[in-house]
Design brief:
Helix content is about 80%, strand content about 0%. With about 500 residues, it is mainly alpha-helical. Helix 3 runs parallel beside helix 9, helix 6 packs antiparallel against helix 7 and helix 7 crosses helix 22. The radius of gyration is 23 Å and the shape is globular. It is a multi-pass membrane protein.
Length: about 500
């Protein structure tokens, strides 16, 4: 018996290949794959607006005659922050939250197109930012809840990949419309987002609802039907349903398609459980920590202020700055594919720790090179090339781990009843941290030099590595219902995962 258990453990610990999983369970996994792709299309909208704003801000500054502080606020506004995303997802469901987010983005984009002054533009940007905060949370949350355990990391990394694709399209759009007059160029750049937001809003209505949300509503029959479509086998679907029902407090022997779920003050009970239960506190700290460190290591600064950083590095022509930014964006997008295929094969923890270690080295190297260039006051080709290499190395290491793994961890480690609210708080911390950095970066580098700013990011990345090593366990191959047990013991995270 012991030998059999050991054999089973060994099999469970073997790396999973998501491609083989899809071939072995083609019909069902193709359906789960299609759901993940469709809901991830919303992330293209988020990435596009982040990428395009880095170029559009230059033209908006010239056209509307705004100050550097107003440019910082403008760039930071796209981050968006909304503490009600989790409540909305629990109230109307995951699918309709995606639809709602797409509609809000559409309205915000329209307002930005017709804006004729800075305050009006900021209103449109604020509305779009609210929609983007929904997108940032709901896409990985939905995918996490519909994915089989064998391919959850693979599928949940899609939103990050699609964000990068959107950023790259945004860079390309900035470059394409840069030849238009200032008053037209930035409007075309921001207006492109209107069309895909309509298509995405229509497309997501074809998605099935999350089976875990359905169970929380007592709709067991509907949840069973969805699970049969997205699971690797009927037996797995039955096991998943039993686990979800147990987590929701529904008796295992209940066979009704619709059951009465006890009503309670959901928000109050969620926060009470989040902070008073030791395991949930560990989960909350892990989710908030990984979101804070993702942004405090400077990634949004690099993405949004790319042209300004390249100008400081010695690239002076506007088109050349946009082209350099596109090169970095291309590296970021391509390297995300490494994480996409490695999350279920290599695991979350090894990819994350190696990713952050590479980011630290790259940020230190970039800080040294920018400091040398700042002191020399000469634009030397070799120095510019080294800065480009360091910046590309930084986004490459970020993309193989820190980028996609943040959303994967945030949405998979919470229990079903806390998932939407917990993930929502992770997103709030993520967007708040990113917004603060975007609003203060220009003043920061003027106060401590551009090299000093990147040394600060390197220091934060080092603290992040220590935090991840101490707090985050390996979750590859575990069902969502097993997460509480996995994170219930702090010792398991300290080098024993």
């Amino acid at each position: 018996m012991a030998d059999q258990e050991a054999e089973n453990d060994a099999i469970a610990g073997q790396p999973q290949n998501p491609i083989q999983d899809f071939e072995a369970n083609s019909t069902r996994n193709k359906y789960a794959f299609s759901c993940a792709v469709l809901v991830s299309m919303t992330s293209i909208l988020l990435g596009y607006n982040i990428g395009v704003m880095s170029g559009a801000a230059i033209f908006i500054e010239d056209d509307l005659k705004i100050t550097h502080l107003e440019v910082e606020i403008l760039v930071a506004g796209i981050a968006g922050m909304n503490p009600f995303t989790g409540s909305t997802a629990d109230w109307i469901g995951r699918r309709y939250t995606v639809f709602f987010a797409s509609v809000i983005v559409f309205i915000g984009a329209l307002l930005m197109i017709v804006a004729d002054d800075y305050p009006f533009l900021m209103v449109g940007l604020f509305v779009a930012g609210v929609g983007f905060s929904y997108v940032f949370m709901i896409a990985p949350l939905y995918i996490t809840e519909v994915s089989p355990a064998s391919t959850r990391g693979f599928l949940t990394s899609f939103p990050e990949l699609f964000i990068n694709i959107g950023v790259l399209i945004g860079y390309a759009s900035s470059y394409s419309f840069s030849k238009l007059p200032d008053y037209l160029g930035w409007r075309f750049m921001l207006g492109v987002a209107v069309i895909p937001s309509v298509l995405v809003a229509i497309g997501v209505l074809a998605l099935p609802e999350s089976p875990r949300w359905l169970v929380m509503q007592g709709r067991i029959g509907d949840a069973r039907r969805v699970l049969y479509e997205i699971s690797d086998s009927d037996s797995e679907a039955n096991i998943r349903l039993a686990d979800i029902k147990a987590a929701a407090g529904i008796p295992e022997n209940s066979t009704d398609d619709v059951v009465q779920v006890p009503k309670r003050s959901h928000v109050a009970s969620v926060w009470k459980a989040m902070f008073l239960h030791p395991t949930h506190r560990h989960i909350f700290i892990a989710a908030v920590g990984i979101n804070f460190f993702q942004q405090s290591s400077g990634i949004d600064v690099v993405v949004s202020y790319g042209p300004i950083i390249f100008e400081i590095a010695g690239i002076k022509k506007g088109n050349e700055k946009l082209l350099a930014t596109m090169v970095v964006g291309s590296v970021k997008t391509l390297l995300t594919l490494v994480a996409t295929y490695g999350l279920d094969k290599i695991g979350r923890r090894p990819l994350l720790l190696n990713s952050v270690a590479g980011m630290i080295v790259s940020l230190v190297g970039l800080g040294i090179r920018l400091t040398i260039m700042d002191l020399s006051h000469e634009n030397q080709t070799w120095a510019i090339a080294l800065c480009m290499t360091s910046l590309s190395s930084y986004v490459a290491f970020y993309s193989i781990g820190m980028g996609p793994i943040t959303s994967v961890y945030t949405t998979e480690i919470f229990p079903s009843m806390l998932r939407a609210q917990g993930a929502s708080m992770g997103v709030v911390v993520n967007r708040l941290t990113g917004g603060v950095l975007l609003m203060t970066f220009m003043r920061l580098y003027k106060a401590i030099t551009i090299g000093g700013a990147f040394f600060c990011f390197a220091g934060m990345a080092f603290v992040a590595w220590v935090f991840f090593y101490m707090v985050l366990p390996e979750t590859r191959g575990k069902t969502l219902e097993e997460m509480e047990t996995l994170l219930g013991n702090w010792d398991i995270c300290i080098g024993r995962c």
